[in-house]
Amino acid sequence: MTSEEALTTLQPTIAALARRIGKRHPRVDVRDLEQDAALAVVQALPRYDGSTQLSTFMGLRLHGSMIDGLRRWHPRRRRTHGSGIEWEALDAERTVGSARDPETLLQATELRYAVDRLPAREQFVLRAYYWDGKRLVEIARELGLGKSRVGQCKQQALARLRRRSG
Prior knowledge:
- This protein is mainly alpha-helical and 166 residues long.
- 73% of the residues lie in helices and 0% in strands.
- The chain has helices spanning 3-24, 30-44, 54-73, 87-96, 102-116, 120-131, 136-143, 147-165.
- Helix 1 (3-24) packs antiparallel against helix 2, helix 6 (120-131) packs across helix 8 and helix 7 packs across helix 8.
- The N and C termini lie far apart (66 Å).
């Protein structure tokens, strides 16, 4: 089966999946999702052996490629999860170069100073999680720890910050 034949066969599936994902993410162009899926079809087609239906073989690959596209084009927002910490102040300061609002700049400076006073591992976890947008699993891999231990470090660091901020 050629790539063109596979794309023609899967086009209704691709379009329906892109519309469904696009409804949950209104700022995303459905055509971008369809393009990500088409690329996934072309890349995965050499591994298709014909033992299952093409739509079954490609189903998870199509969905996964669209989700990867969302992550690539629309990175996650900064997380707060009720941490009680104003991470947006730091984000605003970094994005604009220097915050125009003196209060925002003060919050960012205070937060950066407070994080700098944490133990090294807690600093690393908070910076990686909130500023770099990494998942706990990725941080755990970098530190050589378990995901649950990284989560505990994050919670300890947040508790320290809350105690110090009064």
